[in-house]
Write a structure and sequence with these properties.
Chain A contains two helices and seven strands; from the N terminus they run αβββββββα. Chain A is an alpha+beta fold. Chain B is flat. Classes of the chains: A alpha+beta, B alpha+beta.
Chain lengths: ~150, ~650
């Protein structure tokens, strides 16, 4: 086999591999992208068991525990409330009145959370939750210090 | 006073960095030895002044000088001293100062080597100009947007930055180690620019660069492993690996760095793949800067994000564009000059390494695609299923070939002989996979395949030294003697590949075979965890240096485990300190939650084989260290240029 042919074969194989990887990545992105909804948009979220994220503020006084490890709370963007049900330990930085992002599945009447995102830093708000609150005018700038200096 | 001096030192260091870059560049263009020497002196001075400035910040933190904004925001008089000191780099401004000080220290090494006549002064001057420009960009970013020495008047009575989650030994070690990796690649980058500038990227160049690439990659590996372990034992951080954007940001340079340490070997030994090696040398550092941008700009939602500012992110993006764009433009102009003819056959060590590089680069691209997708399509996030599937599929061929690569000779390998040597390892791997899938019947088919792949990597790593020593062909006695005499580089690749195999095995165990329970347990009650009984004996109150805690006393199979829930009066939130119990099969992981109903919430998990993730990571780093020692020896033997 001549050198040129070899190089063409290698380039051909590499090209096919790149295209294959790209096709796989795009398909996987479509199937696995998790969409974000503010509580007031939650009615648009699918009910078919696909995971989605919601975010906003944990409404004060809405957190309630049961005896079996379950917890319910309300995520609000002031315009609408989304009741959330979760089982297990909440992250340490979870607090009433604080911004939160929750991943889970929308069911009729309740959002069943599989993951409540914790933060390293109490001065940090997840960008999506902050954006959702700003959209409805619910954002409180004084409560959140975004950056020092 | 110290604060003002340190602030002044910072400005002086920026000026010295600029002076060092300018003099070095002038010296390199005019071949002016005096200017080159002046450039080196300025680089050394800037490193010293940066370090002094950083020490000044540490003094301010150690002494709780709350008139400094950074101290007031990020520290508290209640903290133990070690965490006051670590808080100096536990926030944006201070960590950027650490970054700059480290970068300047890295720059001091080639300056010293050139001053001692160990490397060619002209090449060093080119390296120092490129590195000086990079350092100056970051130093300017620090001085003009992120001043760590800003004062606040009047000084608050106490700090408000007691983040109990960051009161952890890992904070002292994880960021500096990670930075040592990220920033080490800036020297590799500078060598690439210097080589392109001279129009000479050859074996000598690669021998010079290889130790730097390895050193940076080792530091990055250890830094990521430390972070991974931290995220594992901190409840709610997603476990040892969650494909979180901040985690991914560190994996991108790691992947390209891993590709680089393989391809720079090809260039050093065979003088081939010069263009690709140069490109990787540039892009690996670009990935480090891109990661810094992703983490600090706040554009992505992450468990690990901290307070940040999009405006600063924009500046980092400009730095990224200037460095990468400049280097790539130079590359485009010089590429024809540095091209080397490939002379290897399709079946050869080179081909295996090409495949490795191809897969690593594609994996890095897919990683960035998934991580940055939410930047381009707002309101979307991409989770672990995407990364597991796509990156798994992309690296699969490379992992299959990784054990065979070392069996093949440079230039022209004996494929049939290599496959014969592969048979035992493949057999063991297949048996392990089948065992996992059918006998143990745990996890998914994918988990069984990944386990087999891990065993295959491990078996290949064990086979290679045996094969090279000729234990079977030359008799055990002579074979063992030859085994002891094998070159360090053989042990390096065996340790690193074997470590990767162990990591994969641990990942399958801890990921696919894990058990998780979350139950409300009354005092005296118990739960079954992985075939053993955990009994909650009592919950007691204890007092720490700056916190009070509820401590659960849990009897777990003759052992007493004591997970805690801590309350820091100065912090507003409780923290969870989990308890770990290691046994031969894995680790039990028990966390104490809040009181619920008639008991307390206990989160209990069992992670089989999880230790192997960290043993594997450590072995990979050890492989890197062996390779680094070997590469330094080879660089020392370099004929004078």
């Amino acid at each position: 086999m001549r050198k040129r042919d070899e190089r063409l074969i290698v380039l051909g194989v590499a090209g096919v591999a790149v295209l294959g990887a790209a096709a796989l990545a795009v398909t996987a992105l479509r199937q696995n992208a998790i969409y974000f909804y503010a509580p007031s948009e939650l009615a648009e979220a699918p009910l078919d068991g696909r995971p989605v994220r919601i975010g906003g503020r944990v409404r004060g006084g809405s957190v309630a525990y049961d005896d079996a490890g379950g917890v319910t709370f309300v995520v609000t963007d002031c315009a609408a409330d989304a009741p959330v049900a979760y089982h297990g330990a909440l992250p340490d930085l979870f607090r009433e009145g604080q911004e939160v992002v929750v991943q889970g599945v929308r069911e009729a009447g309740v959002f069943r959370a599989s993951e409540v995102l914790a933060k390293h830093d109490e001065n940090y708000a997840p960008p999506e939750a902050a954006a959702a609150l700003k959209k409805t005018g619910c954002w409180d700038d004084g409560a959140m210090k975004t950056a020092a200096g | 006073m110290i604060v003002e001096l340190s602030h002044f030192a910072l400005a002086l260091a920026l000026a010295l960095t600029l002076g060092g870059a300018g003099l070095s560049a002038y010296g390199a263009v005019r071949r002016d030895g005096a200017a080159m020497a002046g450039g080196r002196a300025a680089v050394l001075a800037s490193a010293a002044v940066f370090v002094l400035s950083f020490l000044g910040l540490i003094v301010a933190f150690a002494g709780s000088d709350f008139s400094v904004v950074a101290v007031a925001d990020n520290s508290h008089s209640d903290k133990p001293l070690v965490y006051k000191i670590a808080a100096a780099w536990g926030h944006h401004e201070g960590s950027m100062l650490l970054w700059c000080a480290m970068m300047a220290l890295y720059g001091a090494v080639p300056a010293l080597n050139a001053a001692r006549g160990r490397v060619d002064a002209l090449h060093a001057a080119r390296v120092l100009s490129a590195h000086g420009v990079s350092t100056a960009l970051f130093a300017a970013f620090l001085v003009f947007t992120s001043n760590p020495f800003e004062r606040v008047l009047p000084a608050p009575a106490d700090g408000r930055g007691l983040n109990p989650l960051l009161q952890d030994p890992a904070l002292a070690a994880h960021p500096p180690m990670l930075y040592a990796g990220y920033i080490g690649f800036s020297i590799v980058f500078a060598h690439a620019v210097a080589g392109l500038w001279a129009g000479r990227i050859d074996r000598d160049w690669a021998r010079m660069v290889r130790p730097w690439a390895l050193f940076s990659w080792i530091a990055l590996t250890v830094g990521i492993a430390l972070g991974s372990f931290w995220a594992y034992y901190e409840l709610g951080w997603g476990g040892w690996w969650a494909w979180d954007p901040v985690e991914n940001a560190s994996l991108a340079p790691w992947l390209l760095g891993a590709a680089l340490i393989h391809t720079v070997l090809v260039t050093a030994r065979r003088g081939a793949m010069t263009g690709w090696t140069t490109l990787l040398a540039i892009l690996t550092f670009s990935m480090s800067v891109l990661g810094t941008f992703l983490v600090r700009s706040g554009v992505l939602t992450s468990v690990h994000a901290f307070a940040n500012d999009p405006a600063r992110g924009a500046v980092l993006l400009v730095i990224l564009a200037v460095l990468t764009g400049g280097a790539l433009a130079l590359y485009a102009v010089r590429a024809p000059m540095i091209a080397a003819e490939a002379d290897h056959r399709p079946v050869s060590r080179e081909s295996a390494l090409v495949l490795n590089n191809f897969a690593m680069a594609l994996a890095c691209f897919a990683l960035l695609l998934g991580t940055m997708y939410p930047l381009f399509v707002s309101g979307v996030s991409v989770g672990p299923p995407f990364f597991n599937l796509v990156i798994g599929a992309i690296v699969l061929p490379a992992l299959l070939v990784a054990p065979i690569g070392p069996f093949l000779a440079w230039r022209k390998g004996d494929g049939a002989a290599a496959l014969r040597w592969a048979v035992p390892g493949l057999a063991v791997a297949a048996a392990a996979g089948l065992l996992a899938a059918f006998v143990a019947a745990r996890g998914t088919v994918v988990a069984a395949l990944a386990l087999a792949l891990g065993v295959w990597l491990l078996a290949g790593a064990l086979t290679d030294p045996v094969r090279r020593a000729g234990i079977f062909s030359k008799g055990a006695g002579r074979g063992l003697k030859r085994l002891a005499g094998l070159p360090l580089s053989t042990w390096a690749s065996s340790a690193a590949h074997g470590g990767l195999g162990l990591l994969l095995i641990g990942a399958v165990g801890a990921g696919a075979w894990q058990t998780r329970l979350e139950e409300v347990v009354p005092v005296g009650g118990s739960i079954e965890l992985a075939g053993r009984t955990a009994t909650l004996e009592r919950v007691v109150q204890v007092r720490g240096p700056n916190y009070v805690a509820d401590r659960a006393v849990v009897r777990y199979d003759d052992e007493t485990l004591e997970p805690e829930r801590r309350y820091y009066p100065a912090g507003r939130t409780p923290t969870t300190e989990i308890a770990l119990k290691r046994d031969a099969g894995g680790q039990a992981y028990i966390a104490l939650g809040d009181p619920r109903g008639g008991g307390v919430l206990i989160s209990a998990s069992y992670f089989p084989l999880v230790d192997w993730i960290y043993i594997g990571g450590g072995l990979m780093a050890l492989g890197g260290v062996l390779g680094w020692v070997a590469a330094r020896r080879e660089a020392g033997r370099r004929a004078p240029a």
